[in-house]
Amino acid sequence: MGNSKQVHLDINGERHELTVDCRSTLNELLRNRLGLFGTKLGCNYGGCGNCTVLMAARPVYSCSILAVEAEGKSITTIEGLSGEGEIHPIQEAFADQYAAQCGWCTPGMIMAAKALLDRKPNPTVMEVKMALSGVLCRCTGYTEIVKAVLEAAKGMGRQG
Fold first, then answer.
1. DSSP labels for the chain?
2. Phi and psi (nearest 5°) for 89?
3. In terms of C-beta density within 10 A (0-12 exposed, 13-18 middle, 19 or more buried), how is residue 127 classed?
4. What span, in angstroms and rounded, lies between the C-alpha atoms of 27 and 119?
5. What is the pLDDT of residues 5-41, one digit of tens each?
6. Domain match, 116 and 53 both
7. Are residues 17 and 61 in the same domain?
8. How many domains, the chain?
9. Model-level pTM?
């Protein structure tokens, strides 16, 4: 038990009590233990942002956070955005704007966009670019992604 620890996590609104290896990352826990495969693993060292999730409403790289560091914190993954059979407005905007090419970076982009729009409902183009700058995309050139986030901001504003 020296290399393991009991943790209590709130993941996508669901409480989990798990024994984890103290060296396991949050990404490993999400994908390998909980089957939440929407959170991707790209570089595995915090350089690409594909593994971005929200921890206490802030975007973090799940490959660079130990699972034990998430103790008691609320974690939201891409799977936690949609509910009752509905996709989130950000996901809808990404589809409408063709912002997902290969789809590898898309979950991380959407989670970074969610964090931005939660704190700044009507961002400027530059604010969107800055918020997404930690997630690398090799396919789209970012134009469609930025359009999608701005479209989502408009849609989310109509909901609230």
1. -TTEEEEEEEETTEEEEEEEETT-BHHHIIIIIT--TTS--SSSSSSS-TTEEEETTEEEETTSSBGGGGTT-EEE-GGGT-BTTBPPHHHHHHHHTT--SSSSSHHHHHHHHHHHHHH-SS--HHHHHHHHTTS--SSS-SHHHHHHHHHHHHHHHHH-
2. -55, -30
3. middle
4. 24
5. 999 999 999 999 999 999 999 999 999 999 999 999 9
6. no
7. yes
8. 2
9. 0.93
